[in-house]
């Protein structure tokens, strides 16, 4: 053992110890941590794969083109059939006015237009003027003088499209070379033929029949009842489906223009015209209008990802609580402040890293949810949410005392929050008649406020990608439609409040199991029952009275002269469930010297553990107080913690940490550093026999009960505490380990005070310098083992076995030796007597037996002193019958 007491560990030393412990702990939980980070990555990858798949499926159905912000100008060309498809005379169409099929040989077939009207001569006048007569066109500026035609479905993107200009006959000039859009293009002349039909149905028939021959008319017009004062026209034209732009290129405008222009020129002369210079599409985004289901799903998946950490952290916190590790750390000097800053900071950093990975990975995968929104907004949002989540977790941890319950509730909450958010809250959000104030009230629940934030980010990302713009920017926060600002404000305020509340509740509950129990017990605590009569003096034994005098004297002198002084310390548990208030410790006086071991014996439920709980600060005394090394436990518990060691009744260990790591941690809490720490840990491991065979570096989850017990004792002794409390340290140990442990305690008690409770009289006798028998909340006696035996024993047990006939003689003999002897057992020839020690001398007994042997046969006899066990039973019986 290192002898110099290193003093109270500073805040930094405590934080350092806890941080290192946490890091080691996390290192052990590698698997769980990997899963933790793999989960969002998996979901994101899944999302991308799904998106990719869905996109591909959609592309198969409908090709998706890039947006067209500046559509090109298109030449106002008529869609005319390919030259080989132009209608000619045939068996099906035997009309003489149609061109002869021989024209196909030299590609000189005319484009045939059919027309009809109520006034033949008027209509003929109109259609005759439809085609251009210009012959001297030599620049693209003059294109509007020509009637253009093309047989390519999309002559914009088609490189070898054919452009024609239509004339009544092509004798004069058969082609014009022009430069259009920096492309040199050859315009071929094509004859335009107009043929009269008597009715609309004739036209229909002809077109239909031509189709059968795989040939086409270029178009048809019905001028109806048009005359010089009114113009009515019906146009037949062919819709050409354009597979590239995913649309029917319906440009009947040129047909209509052609015939209108002709009408105008007929009425007003050649000078009047309606030129069409070009046709232009509307600018378009070409996006798919319906948000696909991947987009719909992503908010749900993202909310699951970001609240996934909640149950994980909750489990970690409740684990420390369920296994009372928090209290154990506190008892070994870990201050609340250090615990809080490290635990909170630790979780906050882990959450922040988690969120950062989430955003970084999503961005790497190129999801617009991450890439299009302003990163600073995302960081602020995730950071605030991460902190809110950590503080809410701390608050929630107060409600649970069992890891299993906590994790079931935690995961269920995550699952349900996601579903409710996605299917209920979102529809409420999108319902304009739903009052906004209710939305805000719903957002007070952190799950919904985070959902709203993600929802807004998603909306902006989606809209942004549609208009080719960025997503949410800071200026968008002013948009009243955007819930991001209110969400951030709500989360920020909630964060502040929950941190304060969680800290307050934690301080309340850190001394008892559950904060609610504590709250209710403090509210129902009965007013002090100090006027309850003191334990009557007559029934107290002199040594208890003496102890009280010692306590009173030493308090007056100096409280620091003893390691422990208890001054009328009392513990009353408040009435609960109809039971009256229970007094567990009834005004105890005790003064223990700086070195030595004090053993507390007592039946179960006598109040030993209540007493120890008060001494180590788990519960507060109802009245009275105790001083440990002169420090009042009511006011200076934090200082007291740095000088005591505790070995609790149940081993409080982290299953995944090794024995050595436990000792390192508690050593650091006791302000040991560097080489001194190492040495102390090694020695401590050696003394409790955990050093050899690699036991020290095994995780304590794999320890046997005895090994855990020995580790607990080693923990209580590390850092050389001046006062050590051991609650039944040897339960469950095999005899060899127990002996080993006794040696450790015997060595340790030489320079420190040890308070030990035990049920083993053997242990009490061999370890303790003084013993107190504690029954029903008060000390019945306090002395060393010998004295107790002398006082309460006071009897010897004499046993003799003879034949049944001699029973009376044996009894007579015993009465002779000791008139007050008492027969306590009789079966056949065997009798047992209790002889008061002060009446008999052992020599007399031997003499009497010798005499008796001569008179009748003695099969066996024995004489025994009383044991401590008998003392214990006697005291306990006497106290409970009193
Ligand atoms: C037909 O049109 C011509 C002019 O082109 C006109 O002189 C004639 O009266 C019209 N016939 C009828 C029946 O309207
Ligand atoms: C184009 O034709 C006009 C007549 O319409 C003529 O005056 C002019 O010189 C021609 N220009 C070229 C470049 O051939």
Automatic annotation (TrEMBL):
Domain ABC transporter: 564-801
Cellular compartment(s): Membrane
UniProt record similarity statement: Belongs to the ABC transporter superfamily. ABCA family. CPR flippase (TC 3.A.1.211) subfamily.
Keywords: ATP-binding, Membrane, Nucleotide-binding, Transmembrane, Transmembrane helix
GO molecular function, a single term: ABC-type transporter activity
Pfam family, one: ABC_tran
Region Disordered, annotated ranges: 524-543
Gene Ontology annotations of biological process type: lipid transport
Main location: membrane
GO cellular component: membrane
Naturally occurring in which organism (per UniProt): Spinacia oleracea
Transmembrane spans: 34-54, 293-318, 339-367, 379-401, 408-425
Designated name of the protein: ABC transporter A family member 7
Membrane topology classification: Multi-pass membrane protein
SMART domains linked to this entry: AAA (SM00382)
């Amino acid at each position: 053992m290192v002898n110099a007491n290193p003093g109270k560990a500073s805040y930094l030393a405590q934080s350092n110890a806890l941080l290192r412990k946490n890091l080691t702990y996390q290192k052990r939980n590698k698997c769980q941590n990997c899963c933790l980070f793999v989960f969002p990555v998996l979901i994101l990858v899944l999302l991308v794969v799904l998106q990719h798949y869905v996109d591909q499926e959609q592309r198969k159905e409908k090709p998706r083109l890039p947006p067209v912000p500046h559509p090109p100008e298109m030449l106002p060309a008529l869609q005319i059939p390919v030259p080989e498809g132009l209608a000619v005379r045939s068996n099906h169409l035997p009309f003489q006015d149609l061109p002869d099929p021989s024209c196909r040989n030299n590609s000189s077939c005319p484009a045939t237009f059919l027309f009809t009207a109520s006034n033949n001569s008027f209509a003929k006048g109109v259609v005759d003027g439809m085609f251009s007569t210009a012959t001297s066109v030599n620049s693209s500026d003059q294109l509007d003088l020509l009637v253009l035609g093309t047989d390519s479905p999309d002559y914009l993107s088609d490189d070898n499209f054919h452009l024609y200009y239509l004339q009544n006959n092509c004798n004069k000039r058969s082609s014009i070379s022009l430069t259009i859009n920096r492309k040199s293009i050859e315009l071929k002349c094509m004859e335009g033929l107009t043929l009269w039909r008597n009715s609309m149905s004739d036209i229909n028939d002809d077109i239909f029949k031509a189709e059968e021959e795989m040939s086409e008319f270029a178009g048809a017009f019905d001028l109806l009842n048009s005359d010089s004062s009114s113009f009515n026209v019906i146009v037949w034209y062919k819709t050409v489906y354009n597979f590239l732009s995913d649309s029917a290129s319906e440009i009947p405008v040129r047909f209509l223009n052609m015939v209108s222009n002709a009408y105008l020129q007929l009425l007003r002369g050649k000078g009047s015209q309606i030129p069409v210079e070009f046709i232009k599409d509307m600018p378009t985004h070409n996006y798919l209008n319906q948000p696909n289901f991947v987009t719909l799903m992503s908010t749900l998946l993202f909310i699951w990802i970001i609240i996934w950490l909640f149950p994980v952290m909750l489990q970690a916190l409740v684990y420390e609580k369920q296994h009372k590790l928090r209290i154990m750390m506190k008892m070994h000097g870990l201050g609340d402040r250090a615990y809080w800053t490290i635990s909170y900071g630790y979780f906050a950093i882990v959450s922040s890293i988690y969120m950062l990975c989430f955003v970084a990975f999503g961005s790497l995968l190129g999801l617009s949810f991450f890439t299009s929104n302003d990163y600073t907004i995302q960081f602020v949002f995730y950071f605030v949410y991460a902190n809110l989540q950590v503080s809410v977790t701390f608050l929630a941890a107060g409600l649970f005392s069992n890891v299993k319950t906590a994790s079931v509730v935690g995961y269920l909450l995550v699952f349900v929050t996601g579903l409710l958010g996605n299917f209920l809250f979102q529809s409420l959000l999108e319902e304009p008649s739903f009052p906004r104030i209710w939305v805000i009230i719903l957002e007070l629940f952190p799950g919904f406020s985070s959902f709203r934030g993600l929802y807004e980010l998603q909306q902006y990302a989606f809209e942004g990608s549609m208009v080719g713009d960025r997503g949410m920017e800071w200026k968008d926060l002013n948009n009243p439609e955007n819930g991001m600002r209110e969400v951030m404000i709500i989360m920020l305020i909630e964060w502040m409040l929950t941190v304060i509340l969680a800290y307050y509740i934690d301080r309340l509950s850190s001394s008892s199991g559950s904060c609610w129990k504590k709250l209710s017990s403090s509210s129902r605590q009965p007013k002090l029952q100090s006027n309850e009569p003191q334990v009557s003096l007559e029934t107290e034994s002199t040594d208890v009275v003496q102890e009280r005098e010692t306590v009173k004297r030493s308090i007056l002198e100096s409280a620091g002269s003893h390691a422990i002084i208890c001054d009328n310390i009392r513990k009353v548990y408040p009435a609960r469930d109809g039971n009256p208030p229970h007094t567990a410790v009834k005004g105890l006086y005790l003064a223990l010297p700086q070195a030595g071991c004090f053993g507390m014996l007592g039946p179960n439920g006598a109040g030993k553990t209540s007493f120890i709980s008060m001494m180590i600060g788990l519960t507060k005394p109802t009245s009275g107080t105790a001083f440990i090394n002169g420090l009042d436990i009511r006011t200076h518990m934090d200082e007291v913690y740095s000088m005591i060691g505790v070995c609790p009744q149940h081993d409080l260990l982290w299953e995944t940490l090794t024995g050595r790591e436990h000792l390192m941690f508690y050593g650091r809490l006791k302000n040991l550093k560097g080489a001194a720490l190492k040495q102390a840990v090694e020695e401590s491991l050696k003394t409790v026999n955990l050093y050899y065979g690699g036991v020290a570096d095994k995780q304590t989850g794999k320890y046997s009960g005895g090994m855990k017990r020995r580790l607990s004792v080693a923990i209580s002794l590390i850092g050389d505490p001046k006062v050590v409390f051991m609650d039944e340290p040897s339960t469950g140990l095999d005899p060899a380990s127990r002996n080993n442990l006794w040696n450790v305690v015997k060595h340790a008690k030489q320079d420190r005070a040890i308070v030990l409770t035990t049920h083993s009289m053997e242990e009490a006798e061999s370890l303790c310098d003084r013993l107190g028998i504690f029954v029903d909340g008060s000390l019945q006696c306090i002395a060393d083992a010998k004295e107790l035996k002398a006082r309460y024993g006071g009897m010897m047990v004499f046993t003799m076995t003879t034949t049944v006939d001699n029973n009376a003689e044996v009894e007579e003999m015993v009465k002779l030796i000791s008139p007050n002897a008492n027969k306590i057992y009789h079966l056949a020839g065997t009798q047992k007597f209790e002889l008061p020690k002060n009446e008999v001398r052992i020599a007399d007994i031997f003499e009497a037996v010798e005499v008796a042997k001569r008179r009748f046969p003695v099969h066996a006899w024995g004489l025994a002193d009383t044991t401590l066990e008998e003392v214990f039973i006697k005291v306990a019986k006497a106290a409970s019958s009193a």
